[in-house]
Amino acid sequence: MTKRRVRTGVPGLDEMLHGGFLPGSVVLIRGAPGTGKTSLGLQFLIHGATEEHEPGLLISFEEFPRSLYRDAASLGWDLESLEREQRLHLMFTSPEVFLAGLETPESIIDRLIREHDIRRVVLDSITHFNRLAHDPHELRQIYTRVANGLRREGITSLLLGEEARSEAVRADKGGLAFVVETIILLRYVEVESAIRRAIVVLKMRGSDHDKAIRQYEIHKGGLVIGDVFEGRQGLLRGISYRAT
User: Fold this and answer.
1) How far are the Cα atoms of 27, 29, 33, 81, 148 from residue 37, in angstroms, in the given order?
2) Is residue 3 part of a domain?
3) Number of domains in the chain
4) CATH number assigned to the domain comprising residue 77
5) Is the pTM of this model over 0.85?
6) Which residues contact 74 (CB under 8 A, 6 or more apart)?
7) pLDDT class for 44, splitting at 50, 70, 90?
8) Domain for residue 191, yes or no?
């Protein structure tokens, strides 16, 4: 029996995920700055708010509202209108306050989630939690508390994670890759002396998925997934070469 899926609204990505994310799962979106992680997160929230009747929440630890509104407007999205209609909510806070609120009944975030029936959350970015612990085991516990707090509410959540441009498959200090159900990698790739963007689903626990590395572009309306990189090797290292 096919499980219901949470569609992303990203053309081509739902097909890669065989219909979308599993409901209530925690997803890690990993990539270098500028690869479109926040754009993908907003696209996921806006699709839920406008097409699926699923209210969303963006938790940001770094961007101020004005810059977020401006960046969204450049892609054709009116975040302020969605906020006024209470279909989308933005919260600007710190990792410490967010984590405490997620675990405290009747906290501001707990009331927001319950009163507005939040079904989708984007956390921008999970990397900010790294400064809360230097010990890998302690950091793993923090990641687990975040993920379990979101799962407990039945929320499908995207955790955006920064990585250096040169990193291909990083061993996270706190083992975040083992805490989440799904990992999607966004990467810059050099092909014939030109920079392109590549996307791949590294894992999806509980479901099959497309294993191919595909091209994607960012236009008005967000990300659009394109064709498979044919006849190329070394894509995840950032500099590809023709397969022999």
Assistant:
1) 12, 7, 8, 22, 22
2) no
3) 1
4) 3.40.50.300
5) yes
6) none
7) very high
8) yes
